[in-house]
Amino acid sequence: MELGYDVVISNSRGPETLAGLVAELGPKARAATAAEAAAAGDFAVVTVPLKNYKDIPVEPLAGKIVIDTNNYYWERDGRIPELDNGEATTSGLLQEHLPESKVAKGFNHIMASQITTDGTPTGTENRRALATASDYPEAAELVTSLYDEFGFDSVNIGLLEDSWRVERDRPAYVVRQNAQELKDNLAKATRTI
Fold this sequence. Notes:
Elements: E1 7-9, H1 19-25, E2 29-31, H2 34-40, E3 43-46, E4 65-68, H3 74-77, H4 81-84, H5 90-97, E5 102-105, H6 112-115, E6 129-134, H7 137-150, E7 153-158, H8 179-188
Parallel strand pairs: 1-2, 3-4, 4-5, 6-7
Antiparallel strand pairs: 5-6
């Protein structure tokens, strides 16, 4: 809310269960159903257990940029063969589910608590960097802009098919790194674990 955004949040348990979070976030936040939140936003941020990505409402997100923060934890999500075999990416699966939306990978390789604590002003030496990927340049540009607003440099990986480089168990996943270190870690990533 500090950046001035109006935020509509939802979860699988219903808007009434978000009263405490809404109170904590302040007057620019409100709770809604998933469909209402999707319809309300100029863009959406999806943060769900990957096993539930097909529960994301499709129609209200048509034409919108959707930032995918999801990660594959097979212990929680069950085995997803196309991910296990390196044939898909988490963001690619969401893009398939939301064919009329413009999915961008973002904020998936930083601890949630660090999003509001690790940012520094533009030009800060050794500024932390985060990666994005999208098949739509405008979606990657939105993530890059948000990263800068939150205090992070950005490295664009390229298309969603390459977003696996910043997924779980890869060198760039959930480590503090500047832009050059992030590029180096992305280059070190291997497709199968």
